[in-house]
Model the fold of this input.
Amino acid sequence: MAKIIVLIGAPGAGKGTQARLLNERRGIPQISTGDMFRDMKNSDTEIAREVQAIMASGKLVPDEVTYAMVRDRTSRLDTAGCYVLDGYPRTAVQAGQLEELAKEQGKEIQAIEVDVPKEELMKRLTGRRSCQECGEIYNIYSKPPKVEGICDFHPDAHLEHRADDYEEKVKVRLETYDELTKPLLEYYEKTRRLKKVDGTGEFEMIYAELEKLI
Done:
């Protein structure tokens, strides 16, 4: 059945990992708005130039422009069957726009939330450290390096604690997510299209649950 799978999850919930696994194992295209925005920086199309100008001005990209990007990307041949949306829609307004796109493409929408308690998200994000040499990711709570602050593979490389992974910044990110996403979850709940998977287990267990729902 042709469908649009909307993956919803807070920063650190692991929805990007699950979307990537669906792409690798089931061949379901992962459509990430984050990736699209990054690609726009180096593209020379009409919409890319518009996005570049908006981002350069420091303004937020309007819903209409984001929708145009998603519509353009999902008009390609690889999305003729199913595809996974990672990072879109983020608001009830965008969800309404997606309804129009689904009708246009003759697809059903299935929303799945990767649910992780806030305390766990705080540990995942504030505990994250990365090697500046190879990019290896550690977590001081769940995957610590053998020597504190040092990469297992590059003894000369100190691990980096990203500025937006400090506690105060993480709190703001999660509060902003809750504020924006609550109406979106309510929207899909009211239309009986919202399912949940427990995002606290091993990623293979989460993937198995996700696959069952799909």
